[in-house]
Hints:
Radius of gyration: 23 Å
Distance between the termini: 80 Å
Amino acid sequence: MSQSIDVERELAxxxxxxxxxxxxxxxxxxxxxxxxxxxxxxxxYISATLPPPAPNAPLTWxxxxxxxRVVRRIMVELLNTIVQQQNTFNLQVARxxxxxxxxxxxxxxxxxxxxELEQRVISDQ
Length: 125
């Protein structure tokens, strides 16, 4: 029962991440800052769960996976608190950088408008 709830929760989180991911723009249209921000927005969320080993994984990996699961269950409260804090920080950084890029775009538009107005003033003289 708890495993099906975990699967449902993971699916809901994955669906939410897909909804939040912006539509991809062509790389030629993006500046280096915009590309970095798009990458950050796509990868800011981390999860405390381990992916299960592949069905044909070596026995040593399965043993490591089992030990990690036991340790994580013991440390669940501490680990979840740290992961939540990191996700909160990552989200705030992603939002701040996205706002920075938006301000950069607005500033570029204002600079272009100012240059046009300067050209008008020069041509009117």
